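REQUEST FORM: STRUCTURE PREDICTION
Request ID: SP-0412
Submitted by: Lab K.M.
Chain count: 1
Length (residues): 298
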Amino acid sequence: MSNVLAYNREVDDFKHEISRSMSKLSVMMCRIDGDSSLSEVSDNLLDVLSAMKKTIISSQDEIYKGSKRYDEVRSKISILDESSNLVDSFSSLYKVEDVFSENLELCVENIKEHANVVFGMWFRFSEVMPKVLSKIASKYDCNEERACAIQIAHEELGEGQLNHIHCNAFKRVGEKIGLRINQQDNCESLNKLSNFVDRSSGDKELLGLGLGLEIIANENISTIFNYLSYDDLSKDILERSYFFKTHFVNEDGHIAENINNYRFCETEEDKVLFLKGFFNGLDFWQEFWSEVLVKVKQ
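STATUS: Completed
RESULT:
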């Protein structure tokens, strides 16, 4: 691991400790009843912790600008600026096989134990995604930027129909083909996604993160489908399910909407931040599928 990545990992841990401390202080402040001296102390501590967090984020930005990754990202801007097809251009910036690794071969082996692992992992992801999208949307500077994330979150939450909430629909169809979620299982890579959202420098980086999360949506859903289709009957049930029919239709539209957010980048620095977020999104998927691979092989 490079010094930059090692530093960022340590900084993220420290920043989360600060966030937890701020949350605890907020709870304490709610419990203070009329004691002005204690209230003033708590307010001051909260201000100090908030200032520390902002300083850490600023320091991370400066270190990123001095890293090799920053230079690599800047070199990609001309590819996008000269492109007449941004979908193809963004797709040229990564390799699908680097993200999915051996999962592309293992997902077609039709093994129920593998299906059960992936079922649990994707349910955890699907369950938390509306919260992540809502958090991202709350950090945007304007409603025009906010619209895409809110729309996708609305779809994830069933567009007002509780039986169409995606994580619940996914759970129902998985259980219908005999899969079960182990309540003890977790998805550790989701912590990395939360870290990316928390430490993002601003709306342009978050817009890029949204694209990085969405751009391999078709490959994601196909890999999930192949893993879960462990026999002909399960494949038939999955093909006819609301969850998979919806995702096979909607993903191209989501990708296009997120790519369209690149229009909000007016300066070179905006574009660098967008691409930084984009690659962070892909980094999350690489870690997610690596975690799947480890569990499948156990």
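NOTES: The chain has a mean pLDDT of 80.
Reviewed by: T.R.
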